[in-house]
Specification:
Order of helices and strands: EEEEHEEEEEE
InterPro entries: OryJ/VirC-like, RmlC-like_jellyroll, RmlC_Cupin_sf
Number of helices: 1
Strand content: 35-45%
Largest sheet: 5 strands, antiparallel
Strand order of the largest sheet: 3-4-10-5-8
Helix content: under 10%
Protein name: Cupin domain-containing protein
CATH architecture: Sandwich
CATH class: Mainly Beta
Oligomer: single chain
Radius of gyration: 17 Å
């Protein structure tokens, strides 16, 4: 079954009538720092308490990839097999060019990744991840892993982690990110 992200957005008119504000197929975004991956920025809300109703301010893309406290993001990521990564990189791009391109296309995404531990990152968010196609491994500290298959729900609570696709086909994950405030301890 093909998974082709499509966005349908509802709204209300000034007299309170519910309407379809948008219906569109989503095009994937790519960044050189994640070779072969496709990212679909579906929706997001501003930080703080979301507002609904006629005349609210819908998001514009690109928005900061990770929300601040109270903000949300709905993102689809199609992960390529790890083995495909080395073959997909831009041959003439410097690390600085790759970071600049990522910042332009997906603001804030690149800076969470650890340069000395490929794929490992930590975010100040609660992430609800749902595997809808393929399979992937969620890696935590010290190499601890969980195998994620279709129908698996992951609640990622601001911990250091990486996604590893050890198969020979893409894995599609849907994420809802909720911006959080990090505390010590």
């Amino acid at each position: 079954m093909a998974f082709n992200p499509r966005r349908i957005v509802t709204d209300r008119t000034s007299d309170g009538t519910s309407v379809f504000a948008e219906q569109t197929d989503l095009e994937p975004g790519t960044v050189m720092i994640m070779p072969g991956a496709e990212l679909f920025n579906v929706w997001g809300t501003q930080d703080g308490i979301p507002v609904v109703g006629a005349g609210d301010n819908p998001p514009t893309v690109p928005f900061p990839f990770f929300p601040g406290p109270g903000g949300t993001r709905l993102v689809v990521v199609r992960f390529p097999p790890d083995s495909a990564g080395a073959d997909s990189t831009a041959p003439n791009a410097s690390p600085e060019e790759m970071m600049a391109e990522a910042e332009d296309k997906q603001p804030g995404l690149a800076h969470v990744f650890e340069p000395d531990n490929p794929g490992m990152h930590t975010t100040d968010s609660i992430d609800y991840g749902i595997c809808v196609d393929g399979e992937i491994w969620l890696e935590l500290d010290d190499g601890a892993e969980a195998h994620v298959t279709p129908g698996t729900f992951v609640v990622q609570r601001g911990t250091r982690h990486a996604w590893r696709n050890k198969t020979d086909r893409h894995c599609t994950m849907v994420y809802v990110l909720v911006g959080a405030k990090r505390t010590s301890g």
